Amino acid sequence: ISVNTDGSTVTLSGVVGSPAQRERALSLARETEGVTQVVDRLRVKG
Question: What is the pTM of this model?
Fold first, then answer.
């Protein structure tokens, strides 16, 4: 997973192994202090 930040916006991109992994990554990003927006560019392998 690639993580890029622009101010308080975080963009996650790359390939994950399952929908659960995708949701976990997005949740962790959203829960991070100071993050106001998460852009989801993750793809589930398969």
Answer: 0.91
Count of structural domains, the chain: 1
Distance, CA of 9 to CA of 38 (rounded, Å) = 6
Calculate the average pLDDT of the chain.
Answer: 98
* Sheet of 2-6, strands arranged across: 2-6, 9-16, 37-44
Which residue range forms the structural domain that includes residue 13?
A: 2-44
CB atoms within 10 A of CB 39: 14
Block residue for tokens 């993580």: 3
Whose tokens are 């100071």? That residue is 34
Measured CA to CA, the distance from residue 6 to residue 44 in angstroms comes to 24
